[in-house]
Amino acid sequence: MSRPVALAAALIAASLASLLIALVSGPFPISARVVLDSLLFPMPGVVHDIIWQLRAPRALAAFACGGLLALAGALLQALLRNALADPYVLGVSSGAAVGALFALAAGAGATLIHMGALAGAASAIVIVFGLSFRTGEWDVYRLLLTGVVLAAGLSALVSLTLITAPQVQVKGMLFWLMGDLSYADGPLASWIVLIAGAALATSGARGLDLLSLGETKARSLGLPVKALQVAVFGVAAASTVAAVMLAGSVGFVGLMVPHAVRLMGVAAYRWLLPLSVLLGGVFLTAADTVARTVLAPQQLPVGVLTAIIGVPLMLWLLGRKRLPT
Q1: pLDDT digits (tens, 9 = 90+) for 99-152
Q2: Could you check whether the bond before residue 297 is cis, i.e. omega within 30 degrees of 0?
Q3: Residue 262 CB contacts under 8 Å (≥ 6 apart), including other chains
Q4: Domain architecture of the chain: domains with CATH
Q5: What is the distance between the alpha carbons of residues 203 and 231, in angstroms, rounded to a whole number?
């Protein structure tokens, strides 16, 4: 059995295990056998409500969010040919944060907060794309620079909003900025984006492999470079928006997970992309389970746990192997 196939089998098993553990874990103890019985033969009751209305939607949302961030990170690292690229390099997260925090400061409900985040993220995408794709010419370096500059400006607006917001609303704002899955009760749309984005990206895996050789080499081999770059940007941006709408700004996943897969010996994008989605989903599901149980009933921002868990893991991987180029 080849390494990618073995890794895929292991990650599929880990995905199922992480979701089962998320359903079992919580202040109200439920055994794995009861969870499986409730999934296979749902019966009305307290256990049914806890599993189907609380834990299952949140676990599925965490898995989808982790997969989306990992997918966006892998695509942006390929597009920009930059090992430090992550889903938030385009300023999408900062734009969503400004929109969401403005709504929070105005005392808006969950629906308006999501609408504000979507409007902010969409505005950031339009600005970055508009300034990077001019007169029919695409410049990935302008894309990167525009995203970094825009993110810096929007981060200043975020800081200004935090300073001027009513004290009672600041904690909720900080949770959103650090990543919070407490209100992620409708993961269906994010799963649709994840499945469609992963399918589209994987179908273009050969083009991404050629693009990694450089634009000139890729063109000489007959690859429509500009069209591929625009498509990659679109899928990465849509994946980032879907993840941010679901959980706020969850850092580190999109940067670490694709590199972790590479350090496990997988470099070809036809395997790297789906394996990154699986590993990202497992990682964020596990982190969210810890975030809501370690100090229960108090819940921690999941973005804090992704860094606490992910940094030592990434340093360990880096200590074992040289990062592929």
Answers
A1: 988 888 887 777 788 888 889 988 988 888 888 776 566 677 788 888 889 989
A2: yes
A3: 272, 323, 324
A4: 3-320 (1.10.3470.10)
A5: 12
